Predict the structure.
Amino acid sequence: MTSAPAVEPFDAVDVIACKRDGGRLSRDRIDWVVDAYTRGVVAEEQMSALAMAIYLRGMEPQEIADWTRAMIDSGERMDFSALDRPTADKHSTGGVGDKITLPLAPLVAVFGVSVPQLSGRGLGHTGGTLDKLESIPGWRAELSNDQIMEMLGERGPGAVICAAGAGLAPADRRLYALRDTTATVSCIPLIASSIMSKKIAEGTGALVLDVKVGSGAFMKELDQARELARTMVGLGVQAGVVTRALLTDMSVPLGLTVGNALEVRESLEVLAGGGPDDVVELTVALGQEMLAAAGRPTGRDELRAALGDGRAMDVWRAMVSRQGGDPDAALPRAAHTEVLTAPSDGVLTGLDALAVGVAAWRLGAGRARKEDAVQAGAGIELHAKPGEAVRAGAPLATLHTDTPERFERALQVLREGVVVSPALSQEAEAAQALRGRGVIIERIADEPA
Ligand code: URA
């Protein structure tokens, strides 16, 4: 943030009117409006109007780049150049059951690349990485910059998952909260600049983006997801960060668990060499991308071996202990469970990610407002995935919560998201054909097309 000028060089109303009328915002105007908003000179209602104008009118690539840089300049930038190893980070645009960061960060560190994974808490139907880790008894998310450096350096585990400090892109922190209350979140220029300002300020040398597509994601359509991925890859490359993206499926939940402690448990299975195929596949694919982007290309089999032989688990245990957690402590379990069963014989043809995410949220796994607490044990365990044959009365999902009055509303939405079709139907054949298709849809790299 710059010091306040004696006289403000621009007027917020002019800036809003320019974008409202479909104009292009100059770099000077963008620098000023983002800085003046951070200083409190541009009022919340003015920034709301500007965000809506951007939402409706869009931004050109140069405007998005200038907006991103202005948000980076609103705060501090971390610098990992003193480390003796390259750094790589991963960012997911958010999905249901997305626990990949937990096995991925220690796995990448095994191969000599440090992983500064500065994360957030969840809001709405997608979970937050910190909420998941906070279900481990004793584990704490807040670390100083010196502690982060210690975790990443030679004498640390080489990976850290912790809260992003308030000093990183503070303009985005305020703007994101404002967008949440003004229906201006789902806008590619604003999402891309929000995510990339934090990631570039974080100081990673390489970045891999997991851009989710499908009902449980921000981006429901492939075209939108591709545009978001390309925009973010472009911003990263322009800022000197080696950036790549995978477009991945979020039409069904990832893995078999949704909810904080439940997802930690599944991550431990992956770190012990097991776990659901889709979680392992995505962990290994993102690991490969991160290592290659950091200049340490590593084969799929080598990554799988580090999950199977305990090396990734050793890093995980060190990471958890260094942040006050007990890696051997029992994870919390919810006090009550309820089982959703298959209504008929057939094939599970639909398991909608959004429905499962909202159901887990209603059980207490997520929060509606930033200030809300989450239940560590709440969530959903899935017993079948699309394409599998099921018998009438067989369990499809177990719901977990400490507050059983939540079951009814969670079951309501979950039932709507689950479809069992007769085994001989076209839907069943299509679901069975898609089974095992894999989660990775497309790769977008920073190399010229
Ligand atoms: N995540 C962010 O950090 N910002 C957005 O705008 C959307 C998702």
